[in-house]
Design brief:
Layout (H helix, E strand, L loop, with lengths): L9 H13 L9 E5 H11 L5 E6 L6 H9 L3 E4 L2 H9 L7 E3 L6 H9 L4 E4 L2 H14 L4 E5 L24 H4 L11 E6 L9 H21 L6 E3 L17 H15 L3 E6 L1 H4 L3 E13 L2 E6 L8 H5 L5 E3 L7 E7 L8 E8 L7 E4 L21 E6 L2 E6 L10
Parallel strand pairs: 1-16, 2-3, 2-9, 3-4, 4-5, 5-6, 6-7, 7-8, 8-9, 11-13
Antiparallel strand pairs: 1-10, 10-11, 10-15, 12-15, 13-14, 16-17
Helix pairs in contact: 2-3, 5-6, 8-9
The structure holds pyridoxal-5'-phosphate.
């Protein structure tokens, strides 16, 4: 994947400038997201030029209707982790057979409801979930495919938001799954294993090493529980160079490595559920500068929107890359960039920006297509909900209006 080949396309930047200048009914003034759907289409087409892996989209990364529709057109299937995500996918006209349900919080009621709605692929994250899927399948007289989610530990494990080597509720250890016998679950097709506990991997070598280490314990587990291992799902975690350090994964190398993993594991199908690697690059978050000041010799900017719209920097300490929307040839210096909330957590980073930046200038954050709008804390301090726009056929179209606090306050 290229490192932001064209940041904002020029016509898109011009159109956004116009949008901010006109700003009818404060649709952008407090912060907005924009997704370049043509950039997304091109990227997804590249990801699909292979016949090694089946690709699913992890809807949690960006559940906006137009994003889901674009992934659908590119032939992706959909990994949903909640009732809300399922209904959003189905509302786009996607058949439930193309949906996979992951997540440690699947209740018995939810599993049954998903089966009734036609979902036929589940990742079981506990023995209870496995029993509930089997029971619901028997009642509804259907035979869903079920993968067991395995949580491994490595000697040189690391921590990351999905756990790395830390103990998490995502799946179960090999030792726990070994209590299961496939022949005890007659109503389902227990045909695969799922493993995913790393995040934002940026090195092909490291990624391949991790995948390789997993194959022997997974194959042994399958054998010991009487499973013919037909499907291996390696989740997501393919990284995005948020820090712009020139580190990025090579997609052709990933495919080459996964072809080897597929043959080592002897599986018929290898699956990935991509989140950020599919959609991060197509999205931008824009918000104006409300104030600029110098404080204890540090240049500070206060923005109209911060972690109320874009939480990720506060929980990962990784800022999104930023630029000014207008052109500037002024020299660049480091600014502390803060949002509007009354917490020091509301900081989008210490970021390089032109020295002539001023109140009402508009900042554009890149790589915001994943874990943006829905991974935020929009209610604190009663600020506005961000609007969301798409860019297609040289046209900027609103998909979600900005909403004032009285929209959600009671
Ligand atoms: C089960 C599962 N699959 C896939 C993903 C997508 O991960 P990423 O955005 O790193 O590709 C996630 C993210 O949390 C997940 O929980």
């Amino acid at each position: 994947m290229s490192a932001h080949p064209h940041w904002l396309a020029k016509p898109l930047a011009a159109s956004l400038q116009q949008q901010f200048a006109d700003d009818i009914e404060y649709q952008v003034a407090n912060g907005c997201f924009v997704y370049d759907l043509e950039q997304l289409q091109q990227h997804l087409a590249k990801l699909q030029q292979q016949d090694v892996i089946k690709l699913w989209f992890a809807v949690k990364a960006n559940p906006l209707s137009r994003i889901i529709q674009t992934l659908d057109q590119a032939g992706f299937n959909f990994d949903v982790a909640s009732t809300g995500e399922l209904s959003q996918v189905l509302a786009q006209g996607i058949l439930p057979e193309r949906v996979l349900n992951t997540g440690p919080a699947k209740s018995q009621r939810q599993i049954h409801a998903f089966i009734k709605q036609g979902v036929r692929v589940f990742v079981a994250e506990s023995i209870n979930q496995l029993k509930w899927i089997n029971q619901a399948a028997a009642i509804e007289q259907v035979t869903p495919q079920v993968l067991l989610r395995v949580q491994l530990q490595w000697p040189e494990g690391e921590k990351n938001p999905l756990g790395g080597n830390a103990l998490t509720p995502f799946g179960l250890s090999v030792a726990e799954w070994q209590h299961v016998q496939v022949s005890d679950f007659l109503a389902i097709d227990l045909c695969g294993l799922h493993i995913f506990q790393w995040g934002n991997m940026l090195s092909n070598e490291k990624m391949y090493q991790l995948w390789q280490q997993m194959v022997p314990p997974l194959c042994q587990l399958a054998e010991s529980i009487g499973m013919q291992l037909r499907i291996l799902d390696l989740g997501g975690g393919l990284g995005i160079d948020y820090l712009q350090q020139g580190q990025q994964l090579s997609w052709p190398k990933i495919i080459e490595d996964l072809a080897k993993i597929k043959s080592e594991a002897g599986v018929e199908e290898l699956w990935l559920e991509l989140g950020r690697y599919a959609v991060a690059e197509c999205g931008y978050y824009l918000t104006p500068v409300v104030d600029r000041k110098t404080n204890y010799a540090q240049e500070q900017l206060v923005l109209a929107g911060g972690i109320n719209h874009l939480l990720r920097p506060a929980i990962t300490e990784q800022p999104f890359p930023v630029k000014l929307l207008r052109d500037s040839h002024a020299s660049v210096k480091g600014f502390d960039v803060h949002g509007p909330l009354c917490t020091s957590l509301d900081k989008l980073g210490h970021l390089p920006l032109p020295d002539d930046i001023a109140v009402d200038d508009i900042l554009v954050f890149g790589l915001c297509g994943a874990y943006g709008f829905t991974e935020s804390m929009p209610f604190f301090l009663c600020h506005e909900i961000a609007s969301e726009w798409v860019w297609q056929n040289d046209k900027l179209t609103p998909v979600r209006d900005a909403e004032p606090a009285n929209w959600y306050l009671r």
